[in-house]
Design the sequence.
């Protein structure tokens, strides 16, 4: 064979190897994002409508989160928040709507003390999704239930109870009273 044929074969082989390496890198990144974000990955894809855009959004969240100084609560703060939560739960029967609003405030206080920015709800939920992807949907559900209350609308007692349960999942994660999502993933 002529030398130019070998050159063409080599160039084609290099191109195919580069394409394969690129495809493998994309698949690895996708699997890593799916593992990191869990159910939040699927939610982002469904919400965005395309995988590439959703993955870009998730990477941007992770990059933003890496620049934040998120810290654990001091033991005395954790104990005080836990006591506040217990008091909220005890008052639920007498004032379910008021307690749900106070639970939202308590979540915001914990997040703030841990170092999460308090810009707006969407930004808070995006930031939380990086560290706590398994419970961020609970935060969204609780917020969706408490939202009508802030506009003076009625919510059923069962709805209020569900809202409090959703807030509790996030609250427990933020207090780190149970192994965090990242700790559970790290240990398999």
Sequence:
């Amino acid at each position: 064979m002529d030398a130019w044929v070998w050159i063409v074969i080599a160039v084609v082989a290099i191109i195919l190897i580069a394409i394969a390496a690129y495809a493998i890198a994309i698949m690895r990144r996708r699997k890593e994002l799916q593992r990191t974000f869990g159910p939040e990955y699927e939610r982002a894809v469904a919400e965005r409508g395309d995988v590439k855009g959703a993955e870009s959004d998730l990477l941007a969240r992770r990059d933003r989160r890496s620049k934040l100084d998120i810290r654990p609560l001091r033991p005395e703060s954790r104990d005080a928040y836990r006591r506040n939560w217990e008091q909220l739960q005890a008052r639920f029967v007498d004032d379910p709507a008021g307690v749900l609003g106070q639970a939202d405030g308590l979540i915001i206080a914990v997040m703030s003390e841990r170092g999460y920015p308090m810009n707006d709800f969407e930004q808070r939920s995006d930031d939380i999704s990086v560290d706590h992807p398994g419970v961020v949907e609970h935060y969204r559900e609780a917020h969706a239930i408490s939202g009508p209350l802030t506009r003076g609308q009625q919510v059923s007692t069962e709805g209020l109870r569900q809202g409090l349960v959703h807030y509790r999942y996030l609250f427990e994660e933020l207090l780190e009273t149970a192994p965090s999502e990242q700790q559970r993933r790290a240990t398999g």
